[in-house]
Amino acid sequence: TTINFNTVLDAWAKSGEGEQAAERAEAILEWMDRLSKSGNIDVKPDTITFNAVIDAWARSGSKRGPMRAEQILDHMDALYRAGNQDVKPDTYTYNTLINALAKCGDGVSAGRAEEILKIMEAKYAEGDRSYKPNTRSHTSVIDAWAKSGELGACRMAEGIFNRLRHLYDTNQDPDIKPNVYTANAVMNACAFSKHEEDREEALAMSFRTFMWLDEQPDVHADAYTFTIMLSVCSNLIPRDDHAIRFENAAMLFSKCCEYGYLNDHVLWKLKLALSEQEYFQVVGAGPETKSSDMDPSWSRTVVMKRSQDRHGWGRNRHRDRRENHYDRY
């Protein structure tokens, strides 16, 4: 049946076997199409089928992955416009394509990702809720700019973030509520800005975004937030501005401990931001000390989440975090 084929396609998409898995998924789609056209009414490709194949290319790591993903979406859209209601593209379809483009790490792909978001917005504005952009749509486009290395990428990222905040503030629609992953993506775009011309603006944007996150009553920083912001201190605050570096790194360490998110990666980022003497002054221990040897309350949230994930309680949350993990921190 279609359901059985879709289950197999999803397994291939998530198999981690790269381009081979994507090609195999595409071959299964073609097989399903042949069976359907030969009269097998139980096997007919649908939206879920095409989404799984697009996802396989998005996860493939192949240079041609985004191109193939968009070609399959175009074919899907052509079939729908020709009258096949079973293969109508939806928000997941477009989000998966945006995700594929985000992984390219160049300005052309980031620009195309933003164009795809605008296509979704236009179709939704015309009254078709199937194309409704959500928080993930916007976050993935921000991530695309973060990975692009383009001049002004941080400005593009913050612009999308600000539009999303305005949309949510206006409509109070939970589907477009900015979350920690959205804020992290903006800060990530700032932290790894490659252009000297962007440095001052990126520094201001990163702390502006961090302060927004810190002020939210129901959206909170996570461990990744603090690793990114410590990278901001290392990469964007000049080495000779010792006082500013120290003040901000100490503030971030204090908040990280307050929220219970201290881990060894945060400590490593702190070492990169401070001198050994400054590090000892902030942490109260030498650079060889691990987070597990420090005050347990400083890591309580990390430990709790690990326990939840180990027992399956936090499985969905863990999955979301993994899928939204940004490669550079």
Please explain how this structure is put together.
This protein is mainly alpha-helical. Helix content is 68%, strand content 0%. It is built from 16 helices and no strands. The longest helix has 20 residues, at 18-37.
Total number of beta strands: 0
Which consecutive residue ranges, at least 5 long each, have pLDDT under 50? 313-329
Largest sheet: none
Secondary-structure class: mainly alpha
Residue share in helices? Answer: 55-70%
Number of helices: 16
Note the main attributes of this structure.
329 residues, mainly alpha, 0% strand, disordered C terminus
Please outline what is shown here.
The protein is built from 16 helices and no strands. The chain has 329 residues and is mainly alpha-helical. Helix 2 runs antiparallel to helix 3, helix 3 packs parallel to helix 5 and helix 9 runs antiparallel to helix 10.
What's the topology here?
Blueprint: H1 2-13, H2 18-37, H3 47-58, H4 65-81, H5 91-102, H6 107-125, H7 135-148, H8 153-171, H9 180-191, H10 199-215, H11 223-236, H12 242-259, H13 264-273, H14 276-283, H15 300-311, H16 315-323
